[in-house]
Write a structure and sequence with these properties.
By secondary structure, the chain is of the alpha/beta class. It has one domain (about 5-330): 3-Layer(aba) Sandwich (Arginase, Chain A). The chain has 9 helices and 10 strands. It has helices at about 45-50, 55-65, 85-105, 135-145, 160-165, 210-230, 255-275, 285-300, 320-330; strands at about 5-10, 40, 70-75, 80, 110-115, 150-155, 175-180, 200-205, 235-240, 275-280. The strands form 2 sheets. Strands 2-1-5-10-9-6-7-8 form an 8-stranded parallel beta sheet, with helices on both faces. α6 (about 210-230) packs parallel to α7 (about 255-275), α6 (about 210-230) runs parallel beside α9 (about 320-330) and α7 runs parallel beside α8. The two termini are about 35 Å apart. The structure holds zinc ion (ZN).
Length: about 325
């Protein structure tokens, strides 16, 4: 079966020299048809679909403020333009389009390459460069269409606070975020959700944590997390700002690391849910990293195998993250 993708570059959603800009995708765009996946057209999310995650007051406020033109709406800073409401609906819809294709069996797996990103947006507020929480809206759509157990794994460098907030008390969704500790948005410590052990899992890594730490965490934590929850669908918040050369953060993943990490997550989908998995673009602020990261995910999704992706070795020494991984396992009971 095939791999599909949606592409929502939101060219008019841009603000001065803000790092979350359309240019993030400039190198990637001309290569998209060379990754062995089939493009499908993104369909905009409806107000009703977004309102399964966000309060209607927020959705209306975003629609209204965008009519006024460019504005800064939080201190991250998060911006909107005249087109941002429509762009955000299309970004969320681009993820729904992918998840529905996978759930219906029209595709084996998918990648929603969309912006603005989503994982910081909380039910009552847009924040952290994110307007609506694209992956959360798609997970809610999957639940509304009958799924009972959806896993979201987030390997963006930043904690997926918005996704965690959206599903804090939703037993049908399990959320795991591995991220750099001590940076924006400040949440995501090990015991963020003591009432939801094994279902809400945070792996806060020290700066410079890289391939070894993430791949070890995948074996030691992602695997028992998935076995315990037995998902029918896995969604992945794929942020390539965890690359060692990202301008906003200081983790240590390489392109080969993204490839191997994605392979491990895809293997979990194969073990538990017939390979049903959808990757969703979140952050990543160097256009080369984003391009190589997206290519590595497609290589894993299409099982095209031979790629090595060894062109960008991490020049920094990685810290030993063994004790941090043990702390998470101990807290969760894995
Ligand atoms: Zn990020």
């Amino acid at each position: 079966m095939k791999t599909v993708y949606t592409y929502v570059p939101s060219r008019a959603h841009q603000y001065s020299d803000h790092p979350e800009r359309p240019g993030r995708l400039d190198i990637l765009e001309p290569l998209l048809d060379s990754f062995g996946a089939e493009k499908i057209e993104a369909i905009s999310a409806t107000h009703e679909q977004v309102a399964r995650v966000h309060q209607p007051e927020l959705i209306i406020a975003i629609e209204e403020i965008c009519k006024e033109g460019e504005a800064i709406i939080d201190h991250a800073p998060t911006y909107v333009t005249k087109t941002s409401y429509d762009d955000a609906l299309l970004a969320a819809g681009g993820v729904i389009t992918c998840t529905r294709a996978v759930i219906n069996g029209d595709a084996q797996n998918a990648f929603a390459i969309v912006r603005p990103p989503g994982h910081h947006a909380e039910p009552p507020r847009s924040m952290g460069f994110c307007i609506f929480n694209n992956i959360a809206v798609a997970a809610r759509d999957a639940l509304a269409n009958g799924l009972e157990r959806v896993i979201i794994i987030d390997y963006d460098a930043h904690h997926g606070n918005g996704t965690q907030a959206a599903f804090l008390d939703e037993e049908r969704v399990a959320f795991l975020s591995a991220h750099q500790w001590g940076i924006y948005p400040g949440t995501g410590w090990i015991d963020d959700a003591p009432h939801a052990k094994k279902r809400i899992v945070n792996i806060p890594f020290p700066s410079r944590a890289g391939d070894a730490a993430y791949l070890h965490a995948a074996d030691e934590i992602f695997t028992p997390f998935a076995r315990n929850f037995r998902p029918q669908l896995i969604l992945v918040s794929a942020g390539f700002d965890a690359h060692w050369n990202d301008p906003l953060t200081s983790l240590g993943i390489t392109t080969r690391g993204f490839f191997l990490l994605s392979q491990k997550i895809i293997a979990l989908a194969e073990e538990h849910c017939d390979g049903k998995i959808v990757f969703v673009l979140e952050g990543g602020y160097d256009p080369h990293n984003v391009t190589r990261g997206v290519e590595s995910v497609f290589a894993a999704l299409t099982n095209s195998g031979a790629q090595v992706f060894a062109g960008d070795p991490n020049p920094h020494k990685e810290p030993d993250c063994e004790s941090r991984i043990e702390m998470v396992k101990m807290h969760q009971g894995f």
